[in-house]
Amino acid sequence: MNQSRPKVKRSRALGIPLTPKCVRYFERRPFPPGQHGRSRKSTSDYKVRLMEKQRLKAQYDLSESQLRRAFDRAARLERKTGEALIVDLETRLDALVLRSGLARTIYQARQVVTHRHVTVNGNRVDRPSARLRPGDVITVTAGSRTKTPFLAAAAGAHAPERNAPYLSVDLAGLSVQLLRLPVRAEVPVICDEQLVVEHYSR
Distance between CA 15 and CA 103 in Å, rounded? Predict the structure, then answer.
C-alpha cells in the first residue's frame, strides 16, 4: 500500500499539503476527497473553527490532548493567546528539527527525536514535545551522522525555501540553535489561530 495516500487524502480534506509529496496531488485535486468533494461546503461557524483546529493539529502532528494543553498554557500568558499558541508549538523539538532542515516532514522529525538521533545542549532528548528556549542547541549525534537521512540533510536536501530567522542553522555540521522566540509572521504555518482560540473558548 502506498503510505503517502492517507496523508494525501487528509491534505485534501484540510485544504493544505501536509508533506512535500502531497503538494503535486493537492495541486491536481485541491478539493475534499469523496463523491461530493467538489461541492462540499462548510456552512456553520463551528465547522469553520473546527477545521482550523484540525489544520493546526495536522501541521504539527499533534493529538487533541497535546493541542489542548498547549492552548491552556498560551491562555495563561499576558499576550495574544493565538500568537502565544503558535510560539509554544513552534518551539517544540520536533518542529525545530523540521524547520531547520534536519528532517523532511514533521513525521520524520518526530521519528528522528524518538529514535534518539539528536541531543539538546549535549544531552539526548527523545521527547518530540520538549520545548526549547533561546540559546538551546540541537545537534545530530555522532553515531547517527553517517545515516542516509542525515547525509541528505547535511547536503541541504531538506532545507526550507525560506530560512527561519529565529534559528541559526549549520546543516553541514548538522546543528541548529534557537536564537530567540519566533514571532507569528515568521512561522510558516497555514492557520487562522484566532479561530482556534474561539473554538476552545466557546
Answer: 23
